[in-house]
Design goal:
Largest sheet: 10 strands, antiparallel
Strand content: 35-45%
Low-confidence stretches: none
Structural class: alpha+beta
Distance between the termini: 37 Å
Oligomer: single chain
Radius of gyration: 16 Å
């Protein structure tokens, strides 16, 4: 299958940058640290979205993202949730993606994506069995928690003492 290695990102709070999985360093507009995680907001040069907001939530092994799509590229989703490992070393946070993703459509459903990628990566030795098992556990806990709060990610996180917020309408596209 030719699987890719787990995607790694770097979030340098003091330097106000985000290094993406391809090594591209981008400026960050907003970093806000809380006891439960890190909020990141920055512009994007992606053809499908012009801005993104993310919450890194280490204790849950989750990254919740809102993509602000460009016209004509909208998707039927409110939140995109990555499962992974999120750590902090001083003012620098690191993420390692563990392949599993969730699409949350608030009030309607939560969809699991990329289980095939997790299995393939584990089979190719890119993730060990213990890490894959932890990813499945984290995904299962997230799906259960989100679903038990009427598929509302924000409500579920608030119930865990992790109140999060997003830009009210998102920034206007720059192109």
């Amino acid at each position: 299958m030719g699987m890719h290695r787990p995607k790694v990102e770097r979030f340098d709070v003091s330097g106000r940058t985000n290094t993406d999985p391809k090594g591209v360093v981008r400026p960050v507009d907003v970093y806000t640290e809380h006891p439960w995680g890190l909020y990141v907001a920055r512009s994007a040069d992606h053809p499908s979205f012009h801005y993104l907001e993310s919450w890194l939530l280490p204790s849950l092994g989750l990254r919740a993202t809102v993509f602000h799509f460009t016209a004509g590229h909208e998707r039927d989703q409110d939140h995109y949730v990555d499962v992974g490992e999120f750590t902090r070393d001083g003012s620098v946070w690191h993420s390692v993606d563990h392949y599993l993703d969730l699409v949350v459509r608030t009030g309607r459903d939560t969809e699991l994506l990329d289980a095939d990628e997790l299995l393939a990566a584990t089979g190719e030795g890119l993730l060990d069995a213990a890490t894959a098992q932890l990813a499945v556990h984290r995904m299962t806990a997230a799906v259960d928690g989100i679903a038990s709060h009427r598929h509302d990610l924000d409500q579920w996180l608030a119930s865990l003492g992790m109140p999060i917020s997003w830009l009210p309408a998102g920034p206007a596209p720059t192109r």
